[in-house]
Amino acid sequence: MHFTMGIDQERLVADFMTLVSIGSPSRDEAHVAAYIRGVVEELGFTVEEDGAADDVQGNSGNLIVRVPGTNERQSTILLMAHMDTVSPGYGIQPIRLNDRITSDGKTILGADDKAAIAGLLHMLRILRMTKEPHPALEIVFTVSEEAGLLGAKALQRESLASSYGFVFDSAGPLGFIVTEGPAQAKLQAIVNGRAAHAGIAPEKGINAITIAANAISRMHLGRVDEYTTANVGRIAGGFATNIVCDRVEINAEVRSLHDEGLQRERLAMSASLEQAAQDIGGTVDLHWIDSYPAFTLPADSFLRSVVVNAMEHIDISPIFGATGGGSDANIIAGKGIPVANLALGYQQNHTLEEWISLHDLMKGAELMLEIVRECQKLECAYPTPGALGQFA
Ligand SMILES: [Zn+2]
């Protein structure tokens, strides 16, 4: 058995292999949730399941593990990972070869985000073993993250006592700390024209494809500015060459690191469609969905120093950077709990080539433990619940 700073590598790897082999594509997290519950309850902690199953139409809600602190005057700290995976995610056969773990090539591996779950469970084991003082923890395992951050969205703010926290779910090398991530909004547009025989009475028709084409040609797409991107990702409509097309469906998105940029490009995209329809007498129905708000970890946030200090103790070099994707961190920060989002070193996630090194799997668990220890230090220095949250 190898012990490094309290981490039992063989046990951690075994736990990880078990977790990934329990298939849990979004909305089917019940089996992995039951496994997590078993481990947590055996350690003597309580697990609650919230009502998110109904909201996301899945077979499990979010799990909330409440770990009482050794000093009740301190803040509660949130630690988060998601239980679901993308597909193909059933029948995962993890393979350990030299210093890496991969799938057998027929499925994803699911290290996104089970490396985080394995690490958090291991961290709990160690806290139990060492009986060291630590702040109160709320460890939240969400559902349906990959389906659009649905579990985090359904999570009730009032069910959490946390003042601040850490999300372990980012692509990138171990040590990567997300400094900003874009807000995203999605558009479903229906363009309505009027059908007519294309040969006999074309002047009676209003061609929805023409409207869509004109609108799209006027949109700002691609990299709109330094902070903002926009894309038309899907278009469908029409039946035959002899019918003037009366209906086209368009799906598009806008992302921006700034909420103003998002609003501006949303309005511009809507206006292009409305104008193009008006030009030839058609109409549009626009349905916008706010996927998630922008995420920032300010340069002076004390969460940064917690993470950097924790990394220093265990020889991980911090790497700060922006991400183009959304995560549970966007939603939780949007609910008013400041969080940092950290990468655990899994590579090529969402592909059949996904892998993680044994080194990173172990270091990730160690990092979680160090972060909790660093929070304990800080909380002892500022022993008022929530005092540090205002600097986050
Ligand atoms: Zn993930």
Task: Explain what you see.
By secondary structure, the chain is of the alpha+beta class. It folds into two domains: 3-181 and 294-391, Zn peptidases (Aminopeptidase), CATH 3.40.630.10; 183-292, Alpha-Beta Plaits, CATH 3.30.70.360. Helices cover 34% and strands 25% of the residues. The chain is built from ten helices and 19 strands. It has helices at residues 9-21, 30-42, 52-56, 111-130, 150-154, 208-218, 259-280, 302-313, 328-334, 358-381, and strands at 3-4, 7-8, 46-49, 63-67, 76-82, 95-97, 100-102, 136-142, 164-167, 176-181, 183-192, 222-223, 228-237, 247-256, 283-292, 295-296, 319-322, 339-341, 355-357. The strands form five sheets. It has a six-stranded mixed β-sheet with strand order 3-4-8-5-9-18, sandwiched between helices. A hairpin with a 2-residue loop joins strand 1 and strand 2 (7-8). The chain is elongated and about 85 Å long. The protein starts with a strand and ends in an 11-residue tail after the last helix. It binds zinc ion. Zinc ion is lined by residues 82, 112-113, 145, 169.
